[in-house]
Amino acid sequence: HLGMHKWAYTPLYRGFDDYFGYYLGGQNYDSHKKDNGLDFRSDYYDKDGKFVDELRWDLDGRYSAELYSDHTVDLVNKLKSEENPFFIYLAYQSVHAPHMVPQRYIDQYSSHITDKKEKVFAAMVSSMDEGIGNITKALENAGLADNTIIVFSSDNGGNVNCVGKVTSSNYPYRGGKRALYEGGVRSPSFIWARNRLSPSKSNAMSHVTDWLPTFWSLASLQGKLKPNNPIKTKPLDGFDQWLAISENLPTNRTEFVINIDPKPVRCGHQVSHAGLRWKEWKLIIGQGCPPSGWYPAPGFADLENACGPYDSYIELYNIIEDPSETKNVSDKFPDIVKMLTDKIKAYNATAVPLGNKPRDPASNPRNFNFTWMPWLDMFDEVPDEAYTLTKEVWLAGNQLSDDDISSSMETCIAFDQDIDLVEF
Question: pTM for the complete prediction?
Answer without folding.
Answer: 0.83
